[in-house]
């Protein structure tokens, strides 16, 4: 791993998102609570939070971080049709938290796919991206700003 021992401890926040496209009937089954495996959004939210907490076990060379906050919000979007997943992770530490936010979004999306695949194998996971980061030596960044 990269040595971050000399880096200052700062407050850091990262936000990420992902989308899962699906058939309109699949989205309706989720939002109407008709999925055989239960509450898709609740399970995906828990999976995303757990993934952020275990990011260093999943991503090689990723530093283990003592997360202070993780949120996973999931919204139905009939215009896709599908769902949009938004994550936010916070830490007070010596290295960034972008990977935790991205991992939370990715695993939440994969969980939605897993829970719905029996009725819709044509779903697609797309648009996994960092939305913003705050704190750290490189400063703040927001999607749409110049890199």
TrEMBL record:
<feature type="binding site">
    <location>
        <begin position="61"/>
        <end position="63"/>
    </location>
    <ligand>
        <name>substrate</name>
    </ligand>
</feature>
<dbReference type="InterPro" id="IPR023045">
    <property type="entry name" value="MoaC"/>
</dbReference>
<comment type="similarity">
    <text>Belongs to the MoaC family.</text>
</comment>
<dbReference type="InterPro" id="IPR002820">
    <property type="entry name" value="Mopterin_CF_biosynth-C_dom"/>
</dbReference>
<feature type="domain" description="Molybdopterin cofactor biosynthesis C (MoaC)">
    <location>
        <begin position="1"/>
        <end position="136"/>
    </location>
</feature>
<dbReference type="InterPro" id="IPR047594">
    <property type="entry name" value="MoaC_bact/euk"/>
</dbReference>
<feature type="active site">
    <location>
        <position position="114"/>
    </location>
</feature>
<keyword id="KW-0456">Lyase</keyword>
<dbReference type="InterPro" id="IPR036522">
    <property type="entry name" value="MoaC_sf"/>
</dbReference>
<dbReference type="GO" id="GO:0061799">
    <property type="term" value="F:cyclic pyranopterin monophosphate synthase activity"/>
</dbReference>
<dbReference type="InterPro" id="IPR050105">
    <property type="entry name" value="MoCo_biosynth_MoaA/MoaC"/>
</dbReference>
<protein>
    <recommendedName>
        <fullName>Cyclic pyranopterin monophosphate synthase</fullName>
        <ecNumber>4.6.1.17</ecNumber>
    </recommendedName>
</protein>
<keyword id="KW-0501">Molybdenum cofactor biosynthesis</keyword>
<comment type="subunit">
    <text>Homohexamer; trimer of dimers.</text>
</comment>
<comment type="function">
    <text>Catalyzes the conversion of (8S)-3',8-cyclo-7,8-dihydroguanosine 5'-triphosphate to cyclic pyranopterin monophosphate (cPMP).</text>
</comment>
<feature type="binding site">
    <location>
        <begin position="99"/>
        <end position="100"/>
    </location>
    <ligand>
        <name>substrate</name>
    </ligand>
</feature>
<dbReference type="GO" id="GO:0006777">
    <property type="term" value="P:Mo-molybdopterin cofactor biosynthetic process"/>
</dbReference>
<comment type="pathway">
    <text>Cofactor biosynthesis; molybdopterin biosynthesis.</text>
</comment>
<dbReference type="Pfam" id="PF01967">
    <property type="entry name" value="MoaC"/>
</dbReference>
